[in-house]
Amino acid sequence: MRLESFPRALLFLIFCVWTTGAAAAVTVGVTGSLNGQLSAADGYGVKAQFGGEAGLDVLFPATAWLDLGVSAGWLGAMPSDMNGGFGYRAYSGGFFGFVAEASTPLVSWKSVGTLRGGARLGALASVAAYGGTGLVFFFPSLALDGFLAISPAALRMLDIGLSVPLRIHFRRDMAFSGSVGLGLSIAVSTRRAP
């Protein structure tokens, strides 16, 4: 796209959001998780590292069951042990990505609220730095989360969720790097306003 056509494309995007009412049904959430990560470099064994993520999500509805949006935040991992005479360094950094979230109501209780189940799929780009060095590196990740969330009857705009985040990191310095964990999220959605 040429730079001269950028203002027209931006105006078209604003027009689409405005006329479809997508901006009136925004979901904003904060997430956090503790993860166990397995990493293996070429010629070395698999080591476990522990870490976590914290993020901010902004989602817009595409259909009644599918939301699309962006996610940004922080991620990090502690150093591995030194058994076997080698170890993997700690790292921390930031990420940004695009996510798709599909969910459906599972059970609804009049006095308690609605329990939803679903999954999130995301493509993330991360920039991180190894601890104790000036080395900064980039890596893409594939994110898949299964979750359960409850919307309390008294606060239908609020979602409190529990998730199992799975990450596959495509790092050039590792033959394999992936993590699984336990996450907690809190989101406010204007879609389910009373």
CATH class: Mainly Beta
Q: Considering DSSP H and I runs of 4 or more, what fraction of the residues is helical?
A: under 10%
Shape: globular
pLDDT below 50 for ≥5 consecutive residues: which ranges? none
- Count every beta strand, where a strand is a DSSP E run of 2 or more residues: 8
Give the terminus-to-terminus CA distance. Answer: 42 Å
According to CATH, the fold-level topology is Porin
Please give the count of helices.
Answer: 1
Q: Structural class, judged by helices and strands? A: mainly beta
CA radius of gyration is 20 Å
Largest sheet: 8 strands, antiparallel, barrel
CATH architecture: Beta Barrel
Give the SSE order as H and E letters: HEEEEEEEE
